[in-house]
Amino acid sequence: MNPCAVTTGFFLLGRCGRPSVTVCRCGRAVCAEHVDPQGLCPECATAQAYADPFHPGWARGYRRRYYEDSSGQYSDPLWYSRFDSYDRDQFDAGDGFDIGGDTGDDGGFDVGGDDGNDWVDS
Amino acid sequence: MFWRKTRAAIERFHPVHQGLVWQRTASATLPPAEWNALVGSLARHADTVKRRKWRLPDRTVTVLVPLLRVLCEDVAPDGAIGVTADLRGPRVPGKAGPSRKLPVRRPVRSITEWFAIDPWLAVRAELRDGSVLDLTVTDRVRYRRVHKVNPRGKHKTKTKTKTVQRITARRTLQPGQDVRRPDTPPPPWITVRVKSAKRTVVGATMKLGPAPAEVDQVQWILAVATEPFRWTPPAATVRRTA
C-alpha cells in the first residue's frame, strides 16, 4: 500500500507517511486522516476556498500563501522554493508511478508535426 | 433570571473557552488535540451566544485561532503548546504606568501623559524537531489627555492614543542542530540575535508603529516567526512526521 504523500507541518515541513486509503484526483495517495469527505487531499480541498480558520484544513490552505508572502517580505526566493520543491516532491515518488499513464515516446501526439501521412484523399 | 439558557450553554463549553468569555483571558498548556477541541468549541460560540456582552474578544478569532491552527501543524501529538492570552485590552487597571504633566501653551490648560504596557499574547510551542518556539506580542499605548479652556471659559477634554507593538519570536534549537546564516538578510524592520551555546537560540524582534489592524495581526506575527526558521537548513527539517 502506498504511504500517504500529503505534506504536513507549517514551518517544519514533513510527509505524513501513514498507509493510504484512497488516491486524490491529483494523483496523490491520501490516508484516512487527511482525506476530505469528497475523497480529496487537503490541498485540493482547500483549493475550494476554505477561508475560515475554524476549518481544520485552514492552515494547510494558508501555508502556500504564507510562504509566498514571507518570501517576498524577506526577498528570499530560496525560502519559497524550499516549500515549493518539497510540495512538488510528493508527485515524484520515484516508484514508477506516472500521472496520466504510459504515454510512450510521443505520448500519443504527433511530435514531428503534421507531415500529411495520416490524411487520406477522398 | 435573564439569559439563563445562554449561560448554561456557555458552561458546557471548553474550560479555556469559558475563561475567554468570563475573564477575557486564557492560560493553558495543552497538547494539539486538546487545542483543536478548543477551536471546535470556539467555532460554536457565534451560533450559541447572541448576547453582545458575552461575545468572544476580537483577537480570539483573528489571532488566537489561526495561530493555534498553524502551531498545531508543527507540534507532535504528544507535544505541548502553552498559551497565555490577556485580551482585556490596555485600559484595565494594572497595565497603566505612572502619569506625568507635559509643558503647555494657552489655550491648553494641561496635558497628562501615561503609558500602558499590554503583553497580551505569549505562546510557547514544543516543535516536532525538538526545538522550542516562543512568541510574544506586547502593545505599548501612549495616552495623552489634553484639557483646553476657550476664551468664554468653556472646558474641553480629549484623550489621544498612539499604539506601538513589539513582536518577538525566539527559537531554541536542539543541541547539535545545524545552524546556517540565511543567504539574504531579514527586512530592516526585524532585528535578529543569535546566541550560540549548547542550545543555539535564534531571536527576532520587530517594533511596529502604529500597531497593525486586527485582520493583519497574525500575518505580522508569522512574518517575525519566519526568521528563526530560516536559520536551519532544509535538511534539518523533519521529512516524516507522525
Total strands of chain A: the figure is 4
In the sheet with the most strands of chain A, the strands line up as 1-2
Strand content of chain B: 25-35%
Biggest interface, residues from each chain: A-B, 29 and 36 residues
Total number of helices of chain A: 3
Shape designation of chain A:
globular
The share of residues in extended strands of chain A comes to 5-15%
Kindly state the percentage of residues in helix of chain A.
Answer: 25-40%
Identify the quaternary structure here.
heterodimer
Question: Poorly predicted ranges of chain B (pLDDT <50, ≥5 residues)?
Answer: 236-242
Shape of chain B: flat
Mean pLDDT of chain B equals 91
Count of β-strands of chain B: 8
What is the CA-atom radius of gyration of chain A, in angstroms?
Answer: 19 Å
**Helical stretch count of chain B?**
6
Following the backbone from N to C, one meets helices and strands of chain B in this order, namely: HHEHHHEEEEEEEH
Q: State Rg of chain B.
A: 22 Å
Commentary on this structure:
The complex is a heterodimer of chains A (122) and B (242). Chain A has 122 residues and is of the alpha+beta class. Helices cover 28% and strands 9% of the residues of chain A. Chain A has a domain at 7-89. In chain A, the strands form 2 sheets. A two-stranded antiparallel ribbon of chain A has the order 1-2. A two-stranded antiparallel ribbon of chain A has the order 3-4. In chain A, helix 2 (58-73) packs antiparallel against helix 3. The longest helix of chain A has 16 residues, at 58-73. Chain A starts with 6 loop residues before the first strand and ends in a 33-residue tail after the last helix. Chain B has 6 helices and 8 strands, in the order H-H-E-H-H-H-E-E-E-E-E-E-E-H. In chain B, strands 1, 2, 3, 4, 5, 6, 7 and 8 form an 8-stranded antiparallel beta sheet that branches. The A-B interface holds A 8-17, 53-54, 56, 58-60, 62-63, 66, 69-70, 73-76, 78-79, 82, 86 and B 36, 39-40, 42-43, 61, 65-66, 69-74, 127-129, 182-184, 186-187, 219, 222-223, 225-227, 229-230, 234, 237-241.
